[in-house]
Backbone:
């Protein structure tokens, strides 16, 4: 049995608001989804599993019409669908009133239900979200009723406020394959048997790494899945390590070179890291105007040797200040306060 | 900065005098008119310069006050000081017509320029005003208690590490305060941007709500229209059925006359045949009878024909008996289709409104940048409060030591008259004498 598994398509999302490529990204996401449908047809896929959040928000009728049309293009493929935490069901949801194509199977309840497919000897279990958050671990205690079938769980969640689950436990309960969604960074939770699909395309500049769909062959007791990337957009976080000597122009040159070398589908968040001269500030607005640069984050610390300072100023307010702040829990606020206080006590302008 | 030596060539009443200062706290004391204030003003003038003012007000200015009477061209002095361990020599002639400044690094002989701000840089950007307000505490105590306490704590903390003057509590607090102000400005900017975004979302939401209200109104209208159409249809159907029944009755009646006509026709035909037979037997002239029989037959035939036609028509009519769906249906179907469209449109707009509401809710959550700024603000506050706490602690720790030292100095300065002095938590001196506490300013009203 051939299977194609996707999740978190987020149709309707407009990533990178305010950037010149934002509208293109919205369109690209629709095109990628259409491409997946096409692939399912070409590859003669038996089951297309969509593990929630097909839409970024409540689907509009027009949007469902588009999706339903695409589903109608692959009548030989059975499409199993659920609502996730973004497009969760409510009384007036079009999900409920839409007249689906015959090959579409939509979970309507917020409790585990099942679709049986006699010919393929497959049962797919699942539910739909009726809430933005579900904290109960609904999936962990589902046991397939017929162990002779190929039992698949269509799941959405995996963090504390969205149906936390353990893939191992679900498999132990008798499932053959877990097709999960929700976490945008995909991967195999249990090799060949439990897959977090990841979002079809990244929807936020923190969704780094490749995104795409999973294609596999599943038989009773034997399965293989492969990841296929979709390369319309890939976000990369790139670090530049600054030293006390780094010039602004140097950073700009690095960024330009990076953009020239890397493929055009990659978009960047640039991080300036390391230690800098306490007197120097970097103006990154020019960097942020480069094409394909989403933003620039400065995570620089002034180049202080706290141990040495503490030693040199032992018994003074500065020495004492460093000691007190270093004894506080290593939280972001305390780290920043150490930096600020030392800066101030040394009479440097605080960045 | 640490001043090592002040050489006064000619400045007010002080001529050809040299004062050396030791590292740490130096106390300058002397009789009235000994020149303590002159020395004090000399130091200020050396560090920040001194200009002759214009016009009549100049008479009261320091320039005029210390201008030498006999040799105005020789109105000068020099300072030797250290900045970050490097020795500097500064010489000035204040005479307005021969103004001159020499600034040298004594270690390597490098000539620096006062005019180009080298001295200002050595002073760490401290301006004359800042100096007067911060470091230079005039006799009547212009510095606020808090500032003074900070300065003292800072000074003593510096003193504890043998004159390293790089740590400054008051300046640190000021820097932190500046940072806090900047962060708050950033936060305000972000909030403004966010409010703009929220504002446009709100407008979108309101427009959708207006559309929804409009659609709800249209739906109500359409429903009313459909109801009245349905009512009309019901009435029409009643009317049609009533008419149909009447027609049926009429038909019955007509059928009656028609049957009579048919009977007449039949009778007359019989009569004609009978007449013919009777004529055959009795051979009497029955012309008149034959004519009347013929007339009867014609009338009967006409009636029967009509009956036939009518009954055919009736049959047709029976097929046309009205079904309840056939009357006024077109208008109703159209209205119902319109109502469905309106309802679809309303549902679509309500979904969009719902999505906007969720966007508004999301936009109200603090974003990444806002959270980061919040952390920074908290860090500034933490740094500021910790520094204040430590300064206070230091101050308390060394207070006893300070009281002892200050008492010793005051005792020497007053020839043993006052030997018990404490420094208050506001940094003020408090003299104790004869069971009474009083501040030092009450003792002397010197300039």
Residues:
């Amino acid at each position: 049995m051939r299977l194609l598994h996707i999740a978190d398509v987020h149709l309707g999302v407009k990533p990178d608001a305010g950037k010149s490529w934002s509208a293109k990204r919205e369109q690209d996401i629709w095109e990628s989804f259409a491409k997946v449908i096409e692939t399912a047809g070409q590859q003669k896929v038996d089951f297309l599993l969509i593990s929630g959040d097909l839409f970024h928000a409540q689907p509009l009728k027009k949007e469902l019409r588009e999706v339903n049309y695409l589903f109608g293009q692959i009548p030989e493929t059975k499409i199993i669908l659920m609502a996730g935490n973004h497009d969760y069901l409510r009384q007036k949801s079009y999900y409920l009133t839409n007249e689906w194509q015959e090959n579409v199977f939509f979970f309507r309840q917020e409790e585990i239900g099942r679709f049986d497919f006699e010919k393929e000897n497959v049962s797919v279990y699942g539910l739909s979200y009726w809430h933005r958050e579900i904290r109960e671990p609904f999936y962990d205690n589902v046991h397939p009723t017929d162990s002779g079938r190929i039992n698949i769980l269509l799941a959405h969640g995996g963090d504390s406020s969205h149906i936390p689950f353990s893939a191992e436990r679900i498999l132990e309960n008798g499932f053959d394959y877990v097709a999960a969604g929700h976490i945008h960074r995909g991967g195999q939770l249990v090799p060949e048997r439990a897959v977090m699909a990841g979002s079809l395309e990244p929807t936020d500049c923190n969704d780094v790494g490749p995104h795409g769909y999973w294609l596999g062959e599943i038989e009773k007791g034997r399965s293989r899945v492969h990841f296929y990337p979709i390369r319309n957009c890939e976000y990369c976080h790139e670090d530049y390590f600054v030293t006390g000597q780094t010039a602004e122009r140097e950073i700009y040159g690095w960024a330009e070179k990076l953009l020239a070398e890397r493929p055009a589908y990659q978009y960047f968040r640039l991080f300036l890291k390391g230690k800098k001269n306490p007197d120097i500030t970097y103006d990154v607005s020019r960097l942020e105007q480069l094409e394909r640069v989403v933003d620039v984050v400065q995570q620089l610390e002034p180049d202080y040797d706290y141990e040495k300072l503490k030693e040199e100023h032992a018994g003074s307010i500065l020495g004492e200040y460093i000691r007190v702040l270093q004894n506080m829990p290593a939280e972001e606020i305390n780290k920043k306060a150490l930096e600020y206080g030392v800066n101030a006590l040394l009479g440097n302008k605080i960045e | 900065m640490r001043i090592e030596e002040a050489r006064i060539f000619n400045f007010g009443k002080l001529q050809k005098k040299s004062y050396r200062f030791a590292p740490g706290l130096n106390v300058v004391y002397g009789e009235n008119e000994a020149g303590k204030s002159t020395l004090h003003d000399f130091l200020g003038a050396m560090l920040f310069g001194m200009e002759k003012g214009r016009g009549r007000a100049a008479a009261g200015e320091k320039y005029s006050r210390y201008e030498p009477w006999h040799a105005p061209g020789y109105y000068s002095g020099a300072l030797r000081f250290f900045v970050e361990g490097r020795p500097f020599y500064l010489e000035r002639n204040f005479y307005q017509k021969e103004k001159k400044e020499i600034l040298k690094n004594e270690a390597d002989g490098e000539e620096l320029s006062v005019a180009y701000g080298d001295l200002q840089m050595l002073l760490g950007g401290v301006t004359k005003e800042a100096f007067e307000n911060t470091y230079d505490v005039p006799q009547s105590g212009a510095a606020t208690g808090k500032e003074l306490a900070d300065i003292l704590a800072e000074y003593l903390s510096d003193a504890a590490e043998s004159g390293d003057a790089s740590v400054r509590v008051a300046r640190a607090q000021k820097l932190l305060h500046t940072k806090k102000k900047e962060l708050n400005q950033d936060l305000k900017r972000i909030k403004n941007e966010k409010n703009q975004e929220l504002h446009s979302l709100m407008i979108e939401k309101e427009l959708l709500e207006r559309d929804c209200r409009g659609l709800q109104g249209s739906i109500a209208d359409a429903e009313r229209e459909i109801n009245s159409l349905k009512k009309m249809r019901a009435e029409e159907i009643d009317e049609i059925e009533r008419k149909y029944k009447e027609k049926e009755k009429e038909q019955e009646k007509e059928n009656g006359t028609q049957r009579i006509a048919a009977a007449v026709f039949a009778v007359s035909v019989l009569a004609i045949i009978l007449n013919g037979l009777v004529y055959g037997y009795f051979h009497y002239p029955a012309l008149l009878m034959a004519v009347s029989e013929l007339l009867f037959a014609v009338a009967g035939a006409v009636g029967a024909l009509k009956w036939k036609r009518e009954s055919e028509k009736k049959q047709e009519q029976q097929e046309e008996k009205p079904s309840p769906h056939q009357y006024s249906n077109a208008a109703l179907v159209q209205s119902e289709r319109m109502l469905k469209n309106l309802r679809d449109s309303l549902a679509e707009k309500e979904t969009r409104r719902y999505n906007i509401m969720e966007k508004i809710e999301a936009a109200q959550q603090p974003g990444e940048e806002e959270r980061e700024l919040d952390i920074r603000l908290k860090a500034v506050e933490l740094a500021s409060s910790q520094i204040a706490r430590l300064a206070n602690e230091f101050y308390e720790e060394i207070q006893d030591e300070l009281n002892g030292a200050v008492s010793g100095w005051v005792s020497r300065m007053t020839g043993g008259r006052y030997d018990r002095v404490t420094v208050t938590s506001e940094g003020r001196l408090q003299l104790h004498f004869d069971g009474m506490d009083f501040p030092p300013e009450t003792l002397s009203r010197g300039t």
Observations:
- The first strand of chain B starts at residue 2 and ends at 11.
